[in-house]
Amino acid sequence: MITDVMFHSLRSRSQLIPVEDLIRDCAGSRMPEIIPELLTAPIAAAAAEVCPTRAITTDTPVEGGCALRLDYGKCIGCGRCVEVGDGAIRPAKRFSHSGVSRSELVQTWQTGSGVEAQAGEMHTSARDRVYALLGRALNIRQLDPGSCNGCEAEITALTNPYYDLERFGIHFVASPKHADMLLITGPVTRNMATAVQKTYEAVPLPKLVVAVGACGCSGGIFDRRNCPVGTLVNLNEEIIGPVDSLLPVHGYIPGCPPTPAMLVSGILEVLNRYTGRK
Amino acid sequence: MKGNAANQWGPESGRNEALPLDADRRFTGRLVSIFGDNTGGTTILHYLVDLPGAGYGDFEYVVAGPVRSMTPVAPAASWHEREVHEQYGVEFIGHPHLRPLMRHSRFDSGLPSNGSTQEMEESQFLRVQGEGVCEIPVGPVHAGIIEPGHFRFSVVGDTVLHLQLRLFYTHKGTEKLFEGRVATDAVPIAESVSGDNCFAHAVAYCQAVEGVHQAIVPPKANAIRLIGLELERLLAHIGDLGALCGDVGFAVPAAYCARIKEDLLQASAKIVGTRYWRGVAVPGGVRHEIGSADGRELKESIRIAVEDFVGIAEQALRTPSLEDRFEGAGILAPNRAADLAVVGPVARACGIALDVRRDHPYGAYKNLNFDVPTWHYGDVMARARIRMMEVHASARLLLDYLEALPAGPIWLPLPAISTGRAFAAVEAPRGELVYWLRVEEGKIARCHVRSPSFQNWPALPFAVTGNIIADFPLINKSFNLSYSGCDR
What we know:
The structure holds two protein chains of two kinds.
Chain A: H1 2-11, H2 19-22, E1 32-34, H3 41-50, E2 56-58, E3 67-71, H4 80-84, E4 89-91, E5 106-110, H5 130-133, E6 138-143, H6 150-157, E7 170-172, E8 181-185, E9 188-189, H7 193-202, E10 208-212, H8 213-218, E11 239-241, E12 251-253, H9 260-276
Parallel strand pairs in A: 6-7, 6-8, 8-10, 10-12
Antiparallel strand pairs in A: 1-4, 2-3, 3-5, 9-11
Chain B: E1 8-9, E2 19-20, E3 30-39, E4 42-51, E5 55-62, E6 67-68, H1 77-88, E7 92-93, H2 117-123, E8 133-138, E9 150-156, E10 159-166, H3 174-178, H4 187-191, H5 198-213, H6 219-247, H7 251-272, E11 281-282, E12 285-286, H8 292-317, H9 320-326, H10 334-339, H11 344-348, H12 356-359, H13 380-403, E13 420-428, E14 431-440, E15 443-450, H14 452-456, H15 460-464, H16 472-479, H17 483-487
Parallel strand pairs in B: 6-7
Antiparallel strand pairs in B: 1-2, 3-4, 4-5, 8-9, 9-10, 11-12, 13-14, 14-15
Helix pairs in contact in B: 6-7, 6-13, 6-16, 7-8, 8-13, 13-16
């Protein structure tokens, strides 16, 4: 009976994961990580060859090596590059590219020299400033303009007792008119374009837009521009493209789907950047 | 058609094999899917059916002019025929309303359009008229963390007289996206058809590719696939029951179920490195080994999770305030369910014993004997109860399999047969999921995905009509259909 349920609830221990453990955690996301010392030109070429969304590409050879370019915004974490990476590419344990700008999702490494040729601008640790910045409550309206619902499943998990986004004063709201932030998943389909535009217009100023998932960041597997070179690809006119093909985007949370920890890190990072500015 | 024409149906007289009809001129089998394919400029219709006693059958028909609609003898054909009409321009004679299904009028679809866009949009909806009738449009953007779709309610007071769906807002042209890809390489696309059932989609796709290659999957890989499929079912059903409790304002079991689901996701992340088993299935086997120590650990996590879940869910379902909301809400009559050929827990809650795992066993299920639990009444409570029973059944399977995993390789190379056709069905958490594949020289020429949601969505309005509109979210949740899986 209902009282049993209540007692059951009172007896159980708290499951809440401390925010320090969530920031930069990406366990279970399958995002790859490059070990620069081990990276060679053949590995880079093999990784670019197997990548299904052109997240990994190689640039023109420079002094016997070549540059490997990894776009986390396109990565769907299929793990194929890890299989051919021979130790130079492995699943990441820590991930610092959540909630950043589009250009910061891209990293380039020079093979042979072992140096990171052009790192994205690394942001300072959000951890120390999280509590100080979140004095105000943030209302989020989640919007799905065509996602496969993988991202929705993980966003729903943010309200469970492990992540409990409400502890930061962050709520999911039912109406865009109550929202400060739009959390947008998936590629924008042609059928949803008008609804996305109208939803954005209904959010009062100032408003933040966060693109979630590989599809939200880059169109992911659904965008024909991400299809591997050499595959005959049909013109996919059902898809308009990533979120930023329609709306201005303040932060990007990559992953396919991003884990709840990456979502928490990303949302806090966007807040960190944009509430600090005011 | 030959012989006693009154008891048979075919797209056109005398041209192809006929399908059986009963005395009321209803199709006696179960319609699985109708889809088109184009080879060398010729459009071919495929009628995928499940005939009693004979199993799955793929009936082909070459289109040479207008085709007789199957909808009058099998109402489940309606959406399929609308889809084929839109994709291939095939005219179906006798279809009640061949309006576009997937592409909303913003598209220049090349189909004849009479009048302006706005008129065409509105003409798609049935106007219910009379004193006190009003229309409530809901969506496509809904109030929650859910996918988009439009519902047009016609109500008198609180009572729903008519509900019309307009879906396909997440239509991404996924079937087209498969075309031209190397067949053994396209699993990530299948995984992105419906993200919360990604493993069932991946396995169904892999089985279709293996069918083309006539490949043999090693026993260990089949066992790992079974574990992934049943774990996905557990996750879906535990999540659904929690969400159903949440929809009637019963927050404690909702939070409990969310916690238990998360426990299982974290166990998956630890053992296979991915929360939703993405990237695990591959044609020819699986990509992730589960060792005996990992198996024991996963088994223990599942045992604890299921024990916790059963404890809380049994108590929740016995709570009078919840019974009051669940019982009698959203009844789907068994004859409607059969007419619309619904699948999965929705069918089983109406007493229709249908389960691909038993009826058309695949992989490790070939060695299993099991009962398909059914329930009656077809209301929200029945759909909740069915999910409870399936959690028990899945947990038993998982615990047995994790106890003694077979030895051997987890992947075998595919035989070099690179041209052919095959279809495969899997019992996904939402029901029968079918992939039909035609591969030419290693590349996909046509891939048709029939998700359980596509089959079940048309049944939802029948369950909602006559209920109060405030019960709609609950009834919708009890169906728990995937928009993306349906829209593709």
